[in-house]
Specification:
heterodimer, A: about 300 residues, mainly beta, 12-stranded antiparallel β-barrel, 1 helix, about 0% helix, about 55% strand, B: Vanadium-containing Chloroperoxidase, domain 2, 19 helices, about 0% strand
């Protein structure tokens, strides 16, 4: 659900991937509510210290589990509201560092279709998406790579286009994420220079996302390429600890599948995985995730909801 | 299409508003520190007792040129020329440096320590490279400014600056040359006026002492240090506080004093503090011979203990026999019930890792990539000293007292650690997961507790109205190491006690140095 936001909250943390999210080209029907639990598991052994790839025997493999609730509500066919909030658990397999756990950030998105038109043999759709996320608890951000998040509040703006011919589609999007500064527990810190303050200036981020695949009534299968770039920040110096305002970049490739059984069309089962191909100040994470959604129609007397994957 | 255009415009406009409205630039706590405006100029500080010099006259400072000579007038004109063409950057550096020379150089030193407080990455064969002062820019860069190294660096810079300023004050009184603005009333003054004679320049003496000691301590950062030094000297001329000859004399004096400290540092045994493989093995053997379980490194690959021979470094406040006499009795035996109980206590703390514990642990952690516990206590002191309107010489004296006590605390602490070679809690019980990194040296006694005990004692003497606050901070710093899961109660309680004993030597010095 809150894929991009969660990615923004990740360093040496995992990259969460979900199918029906703020970043795909799927809209809910009017007054339809689709909610469900999600789970993801992400782990890495290698990470990039700046641009240098290395492992760390004092961390071993760092894993992150997320258990969350996500949902989408169709205000109208053209306007959906999405929300999500995960509980996150981190652990290192070696060394002495204490794992962290807790409720992370609340994410809210508005997804709007301002334009849709038949174009050639297919349908062209344009989306405008706005998002907001904010920490729900006072978790520790400055304890990377064990932290469950970076504790920024984010504002996100995304433009997205989708083109579908028969059952084949391509979706592309570009996102700008504004991130608030954060406060840490110490009174000074060193980046590339000294800062005599507990406030950390957090650089903004940009992401680009490309999805290709098959989309039908019962099945969506897609390949996803994602690039996340931090617009500023600094590299982890040699053998140093990571820091929230590092320049965290990652290019990931993944696949997602969403299945809607014919006998229970309100239900959808989602699964996926992705892997960091190239990164900077992030872990080379392999992430797998799964979710189950159930769609309710909140409209009285309206006809039975038949397909929560509907794009038209 | 219109709708599309509208919504995109709205998104972009909202974003622009948000970005403009939420400027992210962060300012530091001392950025707006007021210009130094001493409550007293400490006119007789030339009589205060220096640390290393026998007397201010150990350093020769020539009489200044008369203020009616063409050369002096040319120097006044240099000030006027700077002021005539003053830029915003010039104004910014005047504002920055006018907060105090000792304050700013202490902040710069803390920055250098934080930059260099990084443990070297291992070699392919699992050994660790040792930074070389002869080749400071090659990896691993010199120095590894770990807590003992940093404590010593703060002490040398502070003590050298103090002796330089005692000497400066001696010659100020002797030559009594007026400040440029007292000689020529048309000089614009950008700092608070003072009756203190301006020759030699106290700012340049502080700068010269810093530059000269930092050549030894941070040899790979000379470009940064020289740039700060040039900026500092220029700020004083732009501000109308000093003419060029005040600056030159002060800088030469500062460097001459610092050279005596550098000579001391070269012979204080810190160069051998890293020890040898044979010496590291001996520490373990000696511990086993006493029937105790020895410390071993919890890092992979196992890293040699941090500066295990630092306990042999020559202290500032007492001789080597006194240093050994300050070593406390042994920790609970590793096979005792008490050790078992204390390990259990720490395990329970780490299982109950509350947010408040993280706050305390991380506030005091001062670990990798930070200015270390000594730097933290300097920061605490500096922020309180700013409120006291000290003269530069009193600033230097008080920081020197603090930093000499911190270095000597490190010496006694490291002697104790490596004498007993006691394991960390996570070695006794691997189920103990820590809220910060485990320092790579033996547990008993806690360094944070020893540093904090010394600092609170010295600062409590210097600022009695804050004494309770400092004691409470030291207790919290000490306790933070138990919450973190990296020290037992015995380490912390004994560390505070030993630190207090060390701090009392600085208090004794403070009571007899002529400044109180």
């Amino acid at each position: 659900m809150s894929k991009k936001i969660l990615i923004a909250a990740i360093v040496l943390l995992p990259l969460l991937g979900m199918a029906q999210t703020d970043i795909d080209a799927i809209m809910m029907e009017k007054k339809a509510l689709c909610v469900g639990p999600m789970y993801s598991y992400s782990s890495w052994k290698n990470y990039w210290e700046g641009t240098l790839k290395r492992d760390n025997e004092n961390l071993g493999t760092v894993s992150t589990q997320m258990i969350g609730v996500m949902g989408t509500y169709g205000v109208s066919k053209k306007l959906n509201v999405l929300f999500g909030a995960p509980y996150v658990i981190t652990k290192a397999s070696a060394g002495t560092l204490h794992g962290q756990k807790g409720i992370q950030d609340l994410s809210l998105f508005v997804k709007y279709v301002p334009y849709r038109k038949k174009l050639g043999d297919g349908i062209f759709t344009l989306f405008a998406i706005g998002g907001f996320s904010t920490p729900l608890t006072n978790y520790v951000a400055d304890f990377l790579p064990m932290s469950i998040g970076l504790h920024t509040s984010n504002l996100l703006a995304r433009g997205m286009v989708d083109y579908q011919v028969n059952n084949l589609f391509v979706t592309g999007s570009a996102t700008y994420v504004y991130r608030s500064n954060i406060k840490i527990d110490r009174t000074s810190y060193y980046t590339t220079e000294m800062h005599y303050t507990d406030e950390v200036e957090m650089p903004d981020m940009a992401t680009f996302n490309l999805r290709l695949g098959y989309r039908s009534y019962h099945l969506i299968a897609e390949a996803v390429l994602n690039n996340m770039t931090t617009l500023g920040g600094f590299d982890i110096t040699r053998n140093n600890m990571p820091f929230p305002s590092n320049r965290m970049n990652a290019t990931t490739a993944g696949v997602n599948v969403k299945y809607t059984p014919a006998f229970v069309p309100q239900l959808s089962i989602v699964g996926g995985g992705n892997y960091v191909l190239k990164g900077r100040n992030v872990g080379q994470a392999l992430t797998v995730d799964a979710a189950i959604f159930y769609a309710f129609s909140l409209a009285h007397k309206e006809k039975k909801l038949t397909n929560n994957n509907q794009t038209k | 299409m219109k709708k599309l255009f509208f919504s995109l415009t709205t998104v972009v406009a909202t974003l622009v508003i948000v970005i403009v409205a939420c400027s992210k630039s962060v300012s530091g706590r001392t950025d707006e520190a007021p210009a130094l405006n001493p409550a007293t100029i400490d006119v007789n500080a030339g009589d205060w007792k220096p640390v290393l010099l026998a007397a201010p006259t150990d350093i020769t400072v020539a009489a200044p040129i008369a203020t009616n000579t063409p050369e002096y007038i040319a120097q006044i004109n240099e000030i006027k020329a700077w002021q005539h063409n003053i830029s915003d950057e010039d104004k910014a550096i005047v504002k920055y440096w006018s907060a105090g020379a000792v304050l700013r150089w202490n902040e710069i030193l803390r920055e250098l320590v934080a930059k260099h407080n990084l443990p070297p990455y291992q070699n392919d064969d699992g050994t660790y490279p040792i930074p070389s002062a002869a080749n400071p820019l090659a990896y691993p860069q010199f120095p590894f400014a770990n807590p003992p190294y940093a404590a010593r660096a703060y002490a040398y810079v502070s003590a050298a600056q103090y002796d330089a300023l005692v000497t400066t004050w001696y010659y100020k009184r002797l030559y009594n040359r007026k400040s440029p603005y007292a000689v020529d009333s048309s000089v614009n003054v950008m700092i608070p006026r003072s009756d203190l004679p301006s020759y030699p320049s106290e700012d340049a003496a502080v700068e010269g002492a810093a530059v000269e000691t930092l050549k030894l301590l941070f040899p790979g950062d000379q470009d940064f240090i020289q740039q700060k030094a040039e900026e500092h000297k220029r700020a004083r001329i732009i501000a109308g506080a000093n003419v060029r000859s005040d600056i030159d004399a002060g800088e030469a004096l500062g460097k001459a004093v610092a050279q005596k400290f550098v000579a001391r540092a070269r012979g204080d045994r810190a160069g051998a503090a890293v020890g040898t493989p044979a010496g590291w093995a001996q520490l373990e053997t000696d511990c086993i011979a006493k029937g105790e379980m020895p410390w071993y490194s919890l890092e992979l690959p196992k890293r040699p203990p941090m500066l295990p021979v630092f306990g042999k470094v020559k202290a500032f406040l007492f001789d080597s026999l006194t240093a050994i006499s300050l070593r406390p009795g042994p920790p609970p035996s590793t096979s005792s019930q008490q050790m078992k109980d204390e390990t259990e206590e720490i395990y329970n703390y780490t299982k109950n890792d509350t947010r408040e514990h993280y706050r305390i642990v991380h506030f005091w952690a001062d670990g990798v990539g930070t200015y270390t516990p000594s730097g933290h206590w300097d920061a605490i002191a500096a922020e309180d000293f700013i409120k006291e309107n000290y003269s530069e010489v009193r600033w230097a004296r008080n920081l020197a007292l603090l930093n000499m006590s911190l270095m000597d605390a490190a010496i006694v602490c490291w002697d104790t650690k490596n004498f007993y070679f006691n394991p960390r809690p996570s070695q006794m019980n691997p189920a103990i997961k820590t809220l910060t990194g485990v320092p790579n040296f033996p547990a008993y006694i806690s360094g944070h507790s020893t540093f904090s005990g010394a600092a609170a004692t010295v600062l409590g003497h210097l600022l009695p109205s804050n004494a309770d606050k400092y004691t409470a901070m030291a207790r919290e710093a000490s306790l933070s190491r138990m919450y973190a899961g990296i020290h037992y109660r015995s380490d912390c309680e004994k560390g505070l006690e030993v630190g207090t004993n060390v701090g009392n030597y600085a208090v004794q010095r403070a009571q007899t140095d002529g400044a109180e």
